[in-house]
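Exercise 7.
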Amino acid sequence: MLSIKKDGVSLAYEEINRLEINQNVSSILFVHGWGFDHTAFAPQANFFSRSHRIVSVDLRGHGKSDAPEQDYTMSAYADDLAWLCTELGLEKPVVVGHSMGGNVTLELAARHPEIPASIVMIDSVVFPSLEFREALKPVSEVLNTPDYVASGQNVLRSVCLPMEEEPLRTDILSSWPKAPQHVLASTFRNHLLSYDSTDAAANCHLPIAYVGGAFALADLPRFRNLTPQLVTAQVLGAGHFSQLFVPDQINAMITRFVTICSSASTESGWVKETQLDLRAA
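Solution. The predicted structure, written as tokens, is:
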């Protein structure tokens, strides 16, 4: 792992192929979800490192990054990523975020449109219903108690499918959390209870893909109304952690999306040209 300090806070990341491959190839930035670290995208980092420069981050408060006592918001995370890309000379990366990481990428695209070339959100919660948020309020309260680990693991277990194979499911759940309690409580609240994607979605004008799992975690009609260039897809046979359970499907979709982005205009023709099945070979 490498690290770099921003205002005294160490931000950790893993980088592959900075010098080994031609500098003309594109870069991919991977952003993990709530309570995890860069290893949540290990299959994708390994696959795409064959042809891309890869940076996988540990968000502030997660993994080997510092975890100061502060409020952890999606916009602050987006600012961290923008700063990191500039410092590392990561030009126009495709930014791929899982779960909370997808919300961070959406904020990045809206707040710093000069940074990413395009973004991919994997099973992120976008425009949740009031009922959804009300159901999660008790979890938010427990995250401030000594039972926070068991409570968080129960939430994650609920978005896994019974058919998903062991021991991978056990490994995912038992490895969580990779963030301290104060970070988990803050990010859960700011990600699932109080975060409003409206402004970010309306101000995202970059190519964007959303890949859902077995559970409907996004209001896609509302999302598409605000972000008409949105391309959507759904994996088969996987719940929330599709990038780990069905990496071949996710890798193929990202590959397809990157191909579309590189061949289609990002101007007015983008929407028409990209209403394609991301699962296509």
